[in-house]
Automatic annotation (TrEMBL):
It comes from Chryseobacterium aquaticum. Pfam families: DEAD, Helicase_C, RecG_dom3_C, RecG_wedge. Belongs to the helicase family. RecG subfamily. This is ATP-dependent DNA helicase RecG. Residues 461-626 form the Helicase C-terminal domain. One of its GO terms (biological process) is DNA recombination.
Length: 694
């Protein structure tokens, strides 16, 4: 038997059952079975007493004698009953289905152990279908007994707990041949680990609770360690091997802009981040950097200044956004900032006409066009650059992995990559998911920003809320009303939005109202956006299309309707649409009276903090890491035992350990590290789905 042996060759399984197990549990090799971890354990050393039973639904073991076996006929239905007695009392045993054989073989009046789930009815306990073992034949194994994740489909066909326990017990006997150590002695000692063989044995059949905990800890550690090691090696490799265009020059484009056209003083965080980026791009190695910064922290300016450095070194840049609106806004903003310079900027999206597109294509190829803003349209093969030196991706999580890879191919020497995300992600997730990127964080808001005040209001408060909005408009401010977008029902969304619009128009009949939703054509969206952004409309009624990036600094109130229907990160993104100017801003979360526990947590979190990182932690606790990354990438954090919410300490610890090891032994060439290297090469390399990212 090896780890690769197909399970049909395991004793007791066979081809039929193997097929079933494969279909239901996706287990096909001995290794898969070893990684088929119990969900809990039962202590079969513990013997309960009939007289002390309290709770039903427990799986327990008792010791005593079986008496009074009786067959009971009730019309067509037959069942078998018996009494079970110990020195403290008596209870019923019941079989709803049984064979003649079972009836005759029941060990009446002998010392037995029975095991099963107990039921309580009128304070009278009974146990259906007990497992029975003669005292004299009882297995002398003191280990805890595993309970495996199961399904009715399997149990019905006889693949019950007992079946899996027997199979795993047999496989565990082979552990000495199957499992080799993969960590160096010094680590096992310093971390006080069980050996790897003991780990697998104790995860299936723990000697006791503390052994289970140790096994569990080591499995989590290994998962995190080799995962981090993979990235560490990749990063080290990248730093030495992956060519990039060095940008050593800070020239007139950058300095001229910085000195003459910068509309505000950069925050210290912006300056620090810019320095980190400059240091990266100086080197002849491709930059791969993640720029994290909450909404409104000023990432766009950092992006622009970075592009100017590329330009100073004779290279083109592109900035990619996930939506047309956002691309347009970046374009408008950048064009405005560069209006007094010679620098040529253009925008390429799906809605750019063929004739204009042709010009853009030409100017990119001859190098006349130096900064291109756009959507996915930028990725098309037809779009060729003369010398693309820098690609910036905004709101990264919406772009798929494959799309990012396309950017790389746009230049012979791949462009530097700066990924910007406004969705702060939890630390543990960042440490895992982005471990091959260097991370810069803008953790400071531009001066003068007042934290947004967030309140939770209900239908009965609506008049009050509207009056408050009116006061704000009178002060010269603008208001957003946002309605949820329920993907299953676009017609319903539309209805929601239209009703909302009508209601708002009636209630604010003396003001102008703009409307924005996803079904509108790009030019219609533009008209609506401009109507609001120019201040002609005081109110914008919208669906979540405005979630990403829209920037109207004069807007000071965000009213989110049916806020209980939004996820946390969405609420946070929406809230970020206000508070972008110097005025005090407000976010009002309108909900119905009845809220689920989860909705209440979300609303409460929003009213308590403006800190995107804190919010993302709560979000991960509520939804799990997979959902946070989005379906496209969730498979990437499919750890078997490691839990990104609860195992933060392990993740941090392993990351530090890996960094320390690679710092002194980057190629893992020291003798004591051969064991890690070999294991990594054999079991992890190539299996690592992440290796294809960025
Ligand atoms: P985000 O990080 O969400 O993309 P933006 O780049 O859109 O944020 O910046 C939000 C607003 O803050 C913009 O109006 C921008 O002009 C302004 N801003 C950016 N940096 C500063 C700064 N250092 N001082 C003052 N305002 C700034
Ligand atoms: Mg932005």
């Amino acid at each position: 038997m090896t780890l690769e042996t197909p399970i049909e060759y395991v004793k007791g399984i066979g081809p039929e059952r193997a097929k079933l197990i494969k279909n239901v549990l996706a287990i096909s090799t001995v290794e898969d079975l070893l990684h088929f971890y119990p969900i809990r354990y039962i202590d079969k050393n513990k013997v309960y007493k009939v007289g002390n039973l309290q709770e039903s639904n427990l799986e327990i073991q008792l010791k005593g004698k079986i008496t009074n076996v009786q067959e009971i006929h009730n019309g067509k239905v037959k069942r078998l009953t018996a009494k079970f007695n110990d020195d403290t009392g008596s209870m019923d045993l019941v079989w709803f289905q049984y064979s003649k054989w079972l009836k005759e073989q029941l060990p009446v009046n002998r010392e037995v152990f029975i095991f099963g789930k107990i039921n309580a009815f009128n304070n009278q306990f009974s146990m259906p279908h007990p497992e029975i073992e003669l005292d004299e034949k009882k297995e002398k194994d003191n280990r805890l007994r595993p309970i495996y994740p199961s399904s009715e489909k399997l149990t019905k066909r006889g693949l019950n707990q007992k079946f899996f326990q027997v199979i795993l017990r047999n496989i565990c006997k082979e552990i000495p041949n199957l499992i080799q150590e993969n960590l160096p002695e010094y680590m096992i000692k310093s971390m006080n680990f069980l050996s790897r063989q003991q780990t697998y044995l104790n995860i299936h059949f723990p000697e006791n609770l503390s052994h289970f905990e140790k096994a569990d800890f080591r499995l989590k550690f290994e998962e995190s360690f080799f995962f981090q090691l993979g990235f560490g090696l990749k990063k080290a490799h990248h730093k030495t091997k992956s060519q990039g265009n060095p940008f050593p020059i800070i020239g007139d484009y950058f300095t001229g802009f910085y000195e003459n056209h910068l509309p505000f003083e950069l925050t210290n965080a912006q300056k620090r981040v810019l320095k980190e980026i400059r240091l990266d791009m100086k080197k002849p190695i491709q930059m791969n950097r993640l720029l994290q910064g909450d909404v409104g922290s000023g990432k766009t300016m950092v992006a622009l200044l970075t592009m100017l450095i590329a330009l100073d070194n004779g290279f083109q840049s592109c900035l990619m956004a996930p939506t047309e609106i956002l691309a347009q806004q970046h374009y408008n903003g950048i064009k405005d900032l560069l209006k007094d310079t010679e620098i040529k900027v253009n925008i390429l999206t799906g809605s750019v006409k063929a004739s204009a597109r042709k010009i853009i294509h030409e100017e990119l190829e001859n190098g006349e066009l130096t900064i291109l803003v756009g959507t996915h349209a930028v990725l098309e093969d037809k779009v060729k650059f003369k010398n693309l030196g820098l690609a910036i991706i905004d709101e990264q999580h919406r772009f798929g992995v494959a799309q990012r890879a396309k950017l790389w191919a746009k230049n012979k020497i791949p462009p530097h990559i700066l990924v910007m995300t406004a969705t702060p992600i939890p630390r543990t997730l960042a440490m895992s998911f982005y471990s091959d990127l260097d991370v810069s964080v803008i953790d400071e808001m531009p001066v003068g920003r007042k934290p947004i005040i967030t309140a939770h209001r209900r239908e009965k408060d609506r008049t009050f809320v509207y009056n408050f909005c009116r006061d704000e408009i009178r002060k010269g401010r603008q208001i957003y009303f946002v309605y949820p977008l329920i993907e299953e029902s676009e017609t319903l969304d539309y209805k929601n939005l239209m009703e909302g619009l009508e209601h708002v128009m009636q209630s604010f009949s003396d003001y102008n109202v703009a409307m924005l939703h996803g079904k509108m054509k790009p030019d219609e969206k533009d008209v609506a956006m401009n109507y609001f952004a120019s201040g002609k409309a005081q109110i914008m009624v919208a669906t979540t299309v405005i979630e990403v990036g829209v920037n109207v600094p004069n807007a000071s109130v965000m009213v989110i309707e049916s806020a209980e229907r939004f996820g946390l990160s969405q609420l946070h993104q929406l809230r970020g649409r206000v508070g972008r100017g110097a005025e005090q801003s407000y976010c009002i979360l309108m909900t119905s009276d009845k809220l689920s526990k989860e909705s209440r947590t979300r609303i409460k979190t929003m009213t308590e903090t403006n800190d995107g990182f804190k919010i993302s932690e709560v979000d991960m606790q509520l939804r799990g890491p997979g959902d946070i990354l989005g379906t496209q990438q969730s498979g990437v954090v499919d750890f078997k035992r490691l839990d990104l919410v609860n195992d933060a300490a392990i993740i941090k610890n392993t990351k530090n350990m890996v960094e320390k090891i690679l710092e002194t032994d980057p190629l893992l060439s020291r003798p004591e590290h051969q064991i890690i290297k070999n294991y990594y090469l054999q079991y992890y390399k190539g299996k690592n789905k992440w290796s294809k990212i960025s």
